[in-house]
Amino acid sequence: MKSLLLFTLSALLGWVSADIRCHSCYKVPVLGCVDRQSCRLEPGHQCLTTNVYLGKMWVFSNLRCGTPEEPCHEAINQTNHKLGLIYNTTCCSKDNCNSLAPRPTAALTVVFLTSLAGLGLWLLH
Predict the structure, then answer these.
(1) What angle do CA 35, 52, 31 make, to 5 degrees?
(2) Would you call 29 helix, strand, or coil by DSSP?
(3) Which residue ranges form the domains of the chain, and what is each CATH number?
């Protein structure tokens, strides 16, 4: 009985003290998540998700771990007046809590690259 209790307690402590990870990538239209990685969250910090808009049009998202140099500060409708960009940043502190951007589908990538090639050929003529 003691060994079962000790095993359960050590498993629980191991689970609680496990590293918290965040998704890390830049998500852009059509291509999806670029440079997808995972980062280990330092104690006392949070995962960040920053969505950037031009007016109401989504431009890109940045998913990452907060650091001592760049801690998470939630912000809604923070505006860069020079560029006209609007930033919305959310913070969270659970394992993989910042939303993972989906991988682009192969068909969507082929359509994008074909369109880009067609535009290049049109510009050459």
Answers:
(1) 40
(2) coil
(3) 18-114 (2.10.60)
Tell me if residue 32 falls in helix, strand or coil. Answer: strand
- The DSSP code for 20 is P
33: three-class secondary structure by DSSP: strand
Q: Are the C-beta atoms of 36 and 57 separated by less than 8 Å?
A: no
pLDDT in tens, 61-102: 999 999 999 999 999 999 999 999 999 999 999 999 987 644
Average confidence (pLDDT) over 117-124: 77
User: Among 84, 82, 97, which residue's Cα sits nearest to residue 56?
Assistant: 84
Question: What does the pLDDT read at residue 79?
Answer: 94
Q: How far apart are CA 38 and CA 96, in angstroms?
A: 9
DSSP per-residue string spanning 48-101: EEEEEEETTEEEEEEEEE--SSS----EEEEEETTTTEEEEEEEE-STT-SPPP
